[in-house]
């Protein structure tokens, strides 16, 4: 049954956890990177999930423009000025995207100086984990865990106990 997830949904949606990370970033072998990779590997049991780094916002937007599919990727930006959602609401949002035939969703952690007006205008959602600013590596872990949590909520898996 290739192409079918454990919960019976076709593997149509691809999730990308993208980050703006200049090449001087030390990230790939850190404990935080390993933890984020672990959560994305768990999430991949439900949907295709990949992690990406881009050297600049312009490089991310260029990559988005080059994606060939029936529809453009849905872009969700992380920003402390964005909308705060509960885990359940985030799961419901991803579920609606999945069920509407969206082919790819890009959840992106921004540059150190924040997202440009052009990037913000392109996003379908600007998401916040609160008013705090997180280091990129920690934001990547939190986002990867929330992706996994959202997919387990949608699957009715007991990982999320509702608190």
- Label the overall shape: globular
Number of strands: 5
Helix content: 25-40%
Low-confidence parts, pLDDT < 50 over ≥5 residues? 1-10
What characterizes the major β-sheet? 5 strands, parallel
Strand order of the largest sheet: 2-1-4-3-5
Number of helical stretches of at least 4 residues: 5
Overall pLDDT level = 88
| Rg (CA only) | 15 Å
Order of helices and strands: EHEHEHEHEH
SSE-based structural type: alpha/beta
Ends apart, CA distance between termini: 34 Å
Describe the 3D structure:
Helix 1 (31-43) runs parallel beside helix 5 (136-155) and helix 3 (87-99) packs across helix 5. Strands 2-1-4-3-5 form a 5-stranded parallel sheet. The protein has helices at 31-43, 57-65, 87-99, 117-122, 136-155, and strands spanning 14-20, 48-54, 74-84, 104-109, 125-128. Helix 3 (87-99) links the parallel strand 3 (74-84) and strand 4 (104-109). The model is unreliable at 1-10 (pLDDT under 50). The protein contains 5 helices and 5 strands; from the N terminus they run βαβαβαβαβα. It is of the alpha/beta class and 163 residues long.
How would you summarize the topology of this molecule?
Elements: E1 14-20, H1 31-43, E2 48-54, H2 57-65, E3 74-84, H3 87-99, E4 104-109, H4 117-122, E5 125-128, H5 136-155
Parallel strand pairs: 1-2, 1-4, 3-4, 3-5
What attributes characterize this protein structure?
163 residues, alpha/beta, 5-stranded parallel β-sheet, 5 helices, 37% helix, disordered N terminus
């Amino acid at each position: 049954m290739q192409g079918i997830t454990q919960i019976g949904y076709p593997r149509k949606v691809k999730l990308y956890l993208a980050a703006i990370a200049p090449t001087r970033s030390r990230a790939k072998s850190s404990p935080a990177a390993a933890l984020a990779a672990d959560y994305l590997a768990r999430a991949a049991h439900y949907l295709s999930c990949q992690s990406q780094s881009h050297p600049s916002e312009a490089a991310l937007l260029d990559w988005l423009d080059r994606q060939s599919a029936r529809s453009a990727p849905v872009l969700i930006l992380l920003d402390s000025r964005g909308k705060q959602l509960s885990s359940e609401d985030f799961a419901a949002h991803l579920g609606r995207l999945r069920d509407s035939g969206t082919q790819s969703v890009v959840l992106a952690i921004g540059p150190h100086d924040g997202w440009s007006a052009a990037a913000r205008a392109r996003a379908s959602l600007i998401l916040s984990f609160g008013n705090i600013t997180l280091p990129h590596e920690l934001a990547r872990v939190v986002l990867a865990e929330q992706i996994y949590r959202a997919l387990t909520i949608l699957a009715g898996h007991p990982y999320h106990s509702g608190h």
